[in-house]
Amino acid sequence: MCRSPAAEKLLAHYGGTAGFEARSRGTAAQPYCKMPRQITDFLARQGVKDLEHKPALAAETDVDWADLILVMEGVHRDILADKFPQSMRKTRLLLDYCGEGGDLRDPMGKPDKVFEEVLNQIQAAIRKLVAM
């Protein structure tokens, strides 16, 4: 409901015309949750028009659909590998894949400044991904 939908929306915004597609899925998503205000405000400032998002758990059909699965933290990769062993060959940490390295911290419950820092990291990673 936070980092993953931000990455999905930014990828559609920056890479949609180049054919990039993404599905934001979680390892503990609850369908009744909404993206935090800090996320929607940031996306709106970037010019993202579609701010609707309904959280969903990763499913086997999502894993099979994806050419590449980018996760925010190593624990997400581990959960997917345990539940969907076939995901192991195509799952990478977002920051590792885009040359930054490491886990992307979770801003939930933190000050707006932390949200902004994390969202700027996601935005930079997505721009690198689209340019690859």
Describe this structure in words.
- Helices cover 47% and strands 5% of the residues.
- With 132 residues, it is mainly alpha-helical.
- The chain has one domain (3-131): Rossmann fold, CATH 3.40.50.
- A two-stranded parallel ribbon has the order 1-2.
- Strand 1, helix 4 and strand 2 form a beta-alpha-beta unit.
- Helix 1 (3-15) packs parallel to helix 6.
- The chain starts with a helix and ends with a helix.
- The model has no long low-confidence stretch (mean pLDDT 90).
Q: Which short descriptors sum up this protein?
A:
about 45% helix, globular, 2 strands, about 130 residues, two-stranded parallel sheet, 6 helices, mainly alpha
Q: How is the main sheet built?
A: 2 strands, parallel
Q: In the CATH hierarchy, what is the class?
A: Alpha Beta
How many domains, in number, for the residues? 1
* Spatial order of strands in the largest sheet: 1-2
Query: Judging by the overall fold, what is the CATH architecture?
Result: 3-Layer(aba) Sandwich
Which blocks of ≥5 consecutive residues have pLDDT under 50? none
Whole-Å distance between the termini? 26 Å
Structural class: mainly alpha
The global form is globular
Q: Taking Cα atoms only, what radius of gyration do you get, to the nearest Å? A: 14 Å
Share of residues in helices: 40-55%
Any idea what the CATH superfamily is called? Response regulator
Taken as a percent bin, the fraction of beta residues is under 5%
Oligomer: single chain
Strand count? 2
**What value does the average pLDDT take?**
90
What would the CATH topology be? Rossmann fold
Helix count equals 6
The string of secondary-structure elements, in order, is HHHEHEHH
